[in-house]
Amino acid sequence: MKFEDVINLKSNQITDPTYIKKCKETLERNGAIVIDNFITPQALEQIKLEGAAKKHLAFFTNQQHNIYISDADPSYPEDHIRNKRVISSKGCITDDQISAESVLRTLYDSDVFRSFLKVVLNEQALYSYDDECSSINLHYASEGQELGWHFDNSSFATTLMIQKPEAGGEFQYVRDVREADKGEMNFSDAERVLAGDITPNMLEIEPGALVLFRGRNAIHRVTPTIGDTTRMMVVLAYNNKPGVALSASARKTFYGK
Description:
Elements: H1 17-30, E1 32-35, H2 41-54, E2 59-65, E3 86-93, H3 103-109, H4 111-120, E4 136-141, E5 147-150, E6 157-163, E7 167-168, E8 171-174, H5 187-195, E9 201-203, E10 210-213, E11 219-222, E12 225-226, E13 231-236, H6 248-255
Antiparallel strand pairs: 1-10, 2-3, 3-4, 4-13, 5-11, 6-10, 6-13, 7-12, 8-9, 8-11
């Protein structure tokens, strides 16, 4: 499939400066932007079919982690928010399992798409990961699987919703809980989020939507999937520096290889 047949260019004029400016302003204002019907129905169907055909290849994990996705800090008690454990469970197929002819690869490798992202995300350049696993990931969340509350280590995330579950699987977030670059962790508000004392925002994401999200200082989660329909979501991972690769131990942890 050609690039022109992947993105719904009539609705999403990603080379038009006015459209790009509007997207950038929305992301800067809200910390997130959901662009509905970003890919065409034909492209969405092809990705869904590839995802269904390759689900048996997915590496499934059920992990406990703290909200910072980091090692525990022994200077705090085990039940302190710095060390408190949450659960994430999902399946994933990796870049090396995405076919060379995949719609996802056409989109990910497109200079036009990458130029659009670069401006909206306010990045000087965007590069693929320098390993065989990380650039394109297709995630699966079956009944009961979820992503626990956490902060991202990267400054932005780029995702595509492919298939919604019957219920659950909601993307919830609370903005500006911490200021990571200044070392301001704001443990009290993070504790309140996990306790349910702060009502999170929710993104309404339909299949075919592109989502850009700044999760470094916004705590977020995906609630457990309900029903027999698997939630399928693609992560299109870029770096603002060349030559970045996950370590062998990280690849083993996240991808099982």
